[in-house]
Design brief:
alpha/beta; eight-stranded mixed β-barrel; five-stranded antiparallel sheet; rod-shaped; binds ligand C2E; binds calcium ion
């Protein structure tokens, strides 16, 4: 189906209906007027026929009266008896003139015309209608229409008795054009007289008289079709008359017809005007309806078109249009207000979406996306501003301890505290916030704010104490763009977390450290995956002072990276712990240390290898299993390996650490507390720890020979260890004096450059053999 506009549809429908209606009306009018005209015609003809018949009857009685007067006249009778022709003529003339008869005649009993006033009946001629004379003789009178010398006469015949029948008197009127004209003046119909001669061989009719001229008459009498319609008349201009014939008289010789002709133009004339008026009205109403249809269609389709344009504008994202539709149609009005509602709802939803897209739904602060946008704008406007990053320390712990619901409430409280400060606040993720103050704050003021935010959070019965790490950036000095702001804020927060008062102002070194840290993580991952021998173990022998023997050696990791060069273990071990890589590092160390221990044993030496473990290793149950597997696989005993753990590592989760260390001890391994003296462990705690040795930190040893305070500390540690029955190792012995002092004070082992630097296992084997007989002290 072809698609048309509403406009076209409405127009077509209304116009079509009206045209249909108009045509139907016209046809109806045409048909009914034709019917009417036909009825009129029939009635006209009927009336005319009866008028004609009556006229003839009235003439007949006139003729009868005149003939009676004539035949009763004694003078006339006398004249007939006496055959006084002159008197008879005079009487006939007088009597004929009285009634304007066209024919007066006296006929003898044997049918000879005696006297006549007209040439049609010649004197002495034989009267043609013998039967009629006979009828007249026996009945006393007769009437008839006679054709005499081509003319038609209405006649009456009476017997003249004087006193016996002596002759016939004939009186007649001619049936001629004069009569027909009179008839026409009454009936408005044309009339023609037709005579058909029965005797004549050719049956052709003869027309005696007519109100029409001959040519018209011939055409008119042909048209007897009664089924005439207005169309025929309108379309065929020659159809002018409708005729109807009726038999006037029939004698033995002739038939006389009267043909009445109705002028159709006259008949339809009165209807014609009506037809034209109806047609004009129909055409006008069609035109009017087309116009109205067009107007209505336009009126309907105009607001629809406007609404369609409005919908397109809404679709293109403009929700602020004024929707005004001039319409007097309820449906259009409703549609228009629906559009308004739709626009409003879309606008509301749009702003809701925009809000959700730009805000953190939990705290109703700006989200990361939105704050980035705002910071970019501030840069674009060349503004100077501070950015404060804040992080709830161990927020995951808050969730674990207090539950997610309280965790959320905690975030909301912290968010509200930031909001109260004014300026712009945002939550970046987890427990991380960003705040852009409206004025510039000093570090001291920030510490104040930090304390405000750290105030205990009390929700019902729960009290949550949070620690907030803060990093401060000053733009544009510290950062040039948004990306830098977010990145450096992150770095600063990392620094702040490990800074003593949890607050740092950004320094460019942060960035360098951060980059190096990232590089170390990336490269270490690679080093652990690809067995490129980037990682190595070196060993540093431990000298047993009272025997002078090398009974122990510490395994120390070395990393040479093609990109970063030599990376000291102090640097990358901590990073590996934070990046979750320490497990793999430890696995490598254990595997290599056990392999080397086997090599040492095979070389005939009895040296226990000390492996450094980090706190994460201790708490990871897999580590001990790995160790035992490797030891078993190499057919070694637990005496070949020992472990060093820093004091600070144990402090993080002392209870669990003790449990795990017990397992190590149960497996037969000895354990030393590394870097002893730098931590804060209490003596009571020390007593609980399942360790076998204390390793005095090198910071107390390096200058032991000249530092009285260090000497005091070392002596105290030695005394303490003695009380707890723990063996003591001193590391960082760089000179003979220190070695001597430690020996004199009864320290069991020393380790240091003065004895030997950390060296590869093969070198250590050589070194051990070379130093079997070394005298470490002057005798
Ligand atoms: P640490 O366990 O305290 O190791 C002793 C450190 O002191 C070693 O540094 C060693 O080379 C150094 N040292 C020994 N004698 C002297 C001396 O006379 N003077 C001076 N100035 N230093 C001396 P290194 O090898 O750089 O190791 C640093 C730290 O890295 C170690 O401290 C240890 O905590 C960690 N580390 C090394 N290897 C491993 C390992 O395989 N696993 C784990 N978890 N940590 C390791
Ligand atoms: Ca160590
Ligand atoms: Ca140490």
């Amino acid at each position: 189906m072809a698609i048309r506009s509403l406009n076209q549809h409405i127009f077509r429908l209304s116009a079509g209906l009206v045209v249909l209606f108009a045509v139907a009306t016209l046809i109806n009018v045409w048909l009914s007027t034709t019917e009417q005209a036909k009825a009129q015609l029939a009635s006209n003809l009927q009336i005319a026929q009866s008028v004609f018949t009556q006229a003839l009857e009235s003439r007949q009685s006139q003729l009868f009266n005149s003939a009676e007067v004539l035949t009763a006249d004694f003078g006339f009778k006398d004249a007939v008896n006496s055959q006084d022709s002159l008197t008879i003529d005079s009487v006939l003339e007088n009597q004929g003139a009285r009634i304007s008869a066209d024919l007066m005649a006296l006929i003898s009993l044997d049918g000879i015309t005696i006297n006549s006033t007209s040439e049609v009946l010649k004197v002495d001629s034989q009267f043609a209608y013998n039967n009629l004379l006979e009828q007249t003789y026996f009945e006393g009178g007769a009437n008839a229409i006679l054709l005499l010398d081509g003319k038609l006469y209405q006649t009456i015949l009476l017997v003249v008795n004087s006193p016996t029948p002596s002759a016939y008197a004939l009186v007649g009127f001619e049936i001629d054009k004069f009569l027909l004209d009179r008839m026409k003046s009454i009936t408005q119909l044309d009339a023609s007289i037709r005579v058909s001669d029965k005797q004549s061989k050719n049956l052709s009719d003869k027309y005696i008289a007519s109100t029409l001229d001959h040519a018209t008459m011939l055409k008119a009498v042909q048209q007897t079709e009664v089924d005439i319609s207005w169309f025929d008349f309108t379309l065929h201009s020659d159809t002018r008359y409708i005729s109807k014939a009726f038999l006037l008289e029939e004698t033995a010789q002739i038939k006389i017809w009267v043909v009445l002709s109705e002028d159709v133009e006259r008949l339809f004339g009165e209807f014609n005007q009506l037809q034209i008026e109806v047609t004009v009205i129909a055409l006008l109403s069609v035109a009017l309806s087309l116009l109205l249809g067009a107007l209505v269609a336009k009126k309907l389709s105009k607001p629809l078109k406007k609404l369609s344009r409005i919908a397109q504008t809404i679709a293109s994202g403009d929700y602020d249009q004024q929707i005004t539709i001039d319409s007097s149609t309820t449906e259009i009005d409703e549609l228009s207000s629906s559009f308004e509602i739709m626009q409003r709802k879309v606008r509301e939803r749009q702003s809701q979406i925009a809000y959700q897209a730009s805000h953190d739904l939990l705290t109703e602060l700006n989200n990361r996306y939105q704050i980035s946008h705002l910071i970019t704008e501030m840069f674009n406007h060349g503004k100077a501003f501070q950015v404060v990053g804040a992080n709830i320390l161990g927020f995951r712990g808050v969730n674990d301890i207090f539950g997610y619901h309280n965790g959320d409430l905690c975030l909301q409280v912290v968010a509200a505290r930031f909001k109260q400060l004014g300026g712009i606040s945002a939550r970046l993720n987890g427990g991380e916030f960003l705040w852009i103050p409206t004025k510039t704050y000093t570090v001291e003021q920030l510490v104040e704010i930090q304390h405000q935010i750290e105030l205990p959070i009390i929700i019902e019965d729960v009290v949550m104490n949070v620690k907030i790490a803060m990093g401060l950036l000053t733009c544009p000095q510290d950062c040039e763009n948004t990306e830098q702001v977010l990145r450096r804020l992150n770095i600063s927060l990392d620094e702040a977390r490990s800074s003593p008062d949890l607050l740092v102002t950004y320094h460019q070194d942060f960035e360098l450290r951060y980059t190096r840290r990232l590089a170390i993580i990336t490269q270490l991952k690679k080093a652990l995956l690809a067995h490129h021998d980037e990682l190595k173990l070196v060993y540093q022998p431990k000298l047993e002072l009272h025997t002078g023997a090398i009974t122990h050696a510490e395994a120390l990791i070395r990393w040479n990276n093609p990109l970063l060069g030599f990376v000291p273990p102090d640097e990358f071990i901590g990073i590996a712990e934070q990046a979750g890589l320490i497990g793999q590092v430890t696995e490598y160390v254990i595997k290599t240390a056990v392999r080397d221990a086997k090599a040492i044993q095979l070389a005939g030496l009895n040296i226990c290898i000390a492996v450094n473990l980090s706190a994460k290793d201790i708490l990871d149950p897999k580590v001990l299993k790995t160790i035992l597997r490797h030891v078993k696989n190499n057919n070694l005993s637990a005496a070949c390996l020992s472990f060093e753990i820093t004091e600070s590592d144990l402090v993080a989760d002392p209870v669990k650490a003790v449990v795990e260390l017990d397992k190590f001890r149960a497996a037969g391994f000895s354990i030393a507390i590394d870097d002893f003296g730098t931590g804060y462990s209490s003596l009571a705690y020390l007593k609980e720890l399942p360790v076998t040795e204390l390793k005095i930190d090198k910071s107390f040893i390096l200058n032991l020979h000249e530092q009285a305070s260090d000497q005091k500390i070392v002596q105290t540690i030695l005394e303490l260890a003695n009380n707890f029955n723990l063996g003591v190792i001193a590391e960082g012995v760089e000179n003979q004096q220190s070695l001597q002092l430690l020996h004199d004070w009864g320290c069991r082992w020393v380790q240091g450059y003065h004895v030997c630097r950390p060296i590869p296992v093969e070198d250590m084997l050589d070194w051990c053999k070379d130093n079997l007989a070394t005298e470490w002290f002057e005798q």
